[in-house]
Fold:
Amino acid sequence: MQSFKKYYPDEFKKLKHAGKISSQCLDLVEEKIKPGITTEEIDKICNDFLKKNKAVSAPLLYRGFPKSICTSVNHVVCHGIPSNKTLNEGDIVNVDVTSYIDGFHGDTSRTFCVGKVSVKAKNLIDITKEALQRAIKILKPGLNLGDIGHEIQSFVESNGYSVVRDFCGHGIGREFHEEPNILHYGKKGSGPKIHEGMVFTIEPMINSGKYETKLLNDGWTAVTKDKSLSAQFEHTVGITNNGYEIFTLS
Ligand code: MF3
Ligand code: CO
Ligand code: CO
Structure:
């Protein structure tokens, strides 16, 4: 039987601290986002906040990533690089923050509306957020990894949206990305079982069009192939003896 890394209560405590800082960072971003702000300015706000809280950004220089956070606008699926481009009324933007403090990581993202957005964009965001919540709610020891993907995929597709296949959630803890991969699509009862002490992210990327993505020439930015809108939410969770704990709450 396949078995994954197990974290213990003293480690859960530190993971919760890292998670809280990342989540509070997003609370601050939520206050600041409005038409006219650049994604580079959001990057600075986050980097300053992490510093103030004695944390560092895990993405910064991770495999050469040049900034402290990811900012993914409209048809960008994930790993958008903050730049001097301004956000405009009607845009949607995912901000993904991973803090590293006292040896542990906290990884979380939310998709925000810039000013007033279309009903279509708002609905995509709502469905994506609910997909993550539904997946978290079923977590407990003995669940199969495929059940997580099934929960997300069945809900999302029944609402007419698609689940990105090219990126997934991941184990996390002392390392930024650990085993196993957490797929956001799948079959009930498939895959290895989860156990107490496991820590991983769930971070569904949901498209209003088809699920295919393509990578831009910068080597990071992933976009929808059909240029449709994409949204994402992410939490870091830990499996307890009878359920789960969300580490990335503010
Ligand atoms: N935070 C992203 C995740 O959810 C990873 C970003 S890696 C980077 O896994 F290098 F692109 F920043
Ligand atoms: Co992640
Ligand atoms: Co992330």
